[in-house]
Amino acid sequence: MKRVLVTGGAGSIGSYVCEYLIKAGHQVTALDNASPYKVEHLFESDRFRFVQDSILGQEVVERLVDQSDIVIHLAAIADPKRYVTEPLNVLNVNLKGSLIILDRCARGGKKFVFASTSEVMGRNPNVPWKEDADRVLGPPNINRWCYSTGKALIEHYCYAYGQQENLPFVIMRFFNVYGPRCDDLGQGRVIPIFLEKFLHGDDVVVHGDGKQTRCFTYIEDATDAVVKLSLDDAALGSCFNIGANLETSILELAKAMKEAGGFDNNLVFKPHAEVFGKSYEDIPRRIPDVSHIKDVIGWEATTPLDQGLKQTIDFYRKPKA
Ligand code: UDP
Predict the structure, then answer these.
(1) Ligand 1, residues 137, 178, 200, 250: which to mutate, most atoms within 8 A of Cβ?
(2) pTM as predicted
(3) CATH dotted code for 3-178+216-244+287-301
(4) Residue limits of the NAD-dependent epimerase/dehydratase domain (predicted)?
(5) ipTM
């Protein structure tokens, strides 16, 4: 039995990670500044504790890290619109918050499992990306890159603390995770945004020509990877892509959601700049090479896109209790 601190534990991935860890017999503390509604069903377990606070609160964070064996650090501002509208908050939370946790983990020799992102690869055109491929990020006067730059920097800190302070760490790079409990409808990323339009009978807005691609990764597959990487010492000191293999264009995604939900909304196209402002640059193709994670822990995504979309749509269709 491990004592695991999950920062961002009330978030979409975090809530699943807490649930899986509790089911596996571990003791879990979720730290999150958001409302715990996604983890309320875990309150009945005596191996679950929820602390509502910011990762910028040094005293609380240090106390919780000291009480843990493993820290799974998922807390971050990860909403693309906010990279442009509140870059300072994005940098403060994602960098300063991570450093407080990282530093305390290094001092106590606690395992630090870091949620990085496929965004750190930026616009590198040579897909699929292995973990050690070059990052191609944009310039600093374009705020859109503040999120990926912050995440990339914390990846460097992991290796630096690992080398100089013997920090045990694992880096995870997520590729477009989706599913039930992922964001509120209409918020955050493309699937909940599309779904709100589908459910309300509105036009679904595809940015650009819709040919840009992503590998959509079902949340339960991603959670399985997080839990295995966190508990298996074979993963220590390394970075792992967590992503599905199927490359899907945004137009194909919209059509697949239409089909999965039996919707008949119109799909309309709008230039990306009209929605996000001129400075936002979309990534044309984002595809992981997942051979490393398969070799080390035997993981690969197994949920077909149509099934995952159906489960997601069913979840959001159900009236909330
Ligand atoms: N997108 C879209 N319509 C929307 C929201 C997003 O066409 O209403 C596109 C977006 O331009 C991008 C893709 O969907 O090409 C995925 O966007 P998301 O915000 O989910 O995150 P990203 O993968 O770009 O980090």
Answers:
(1) 250
(2) 0.96
(3) 3.40.50.720
(4) 4-243
(5) 0.98
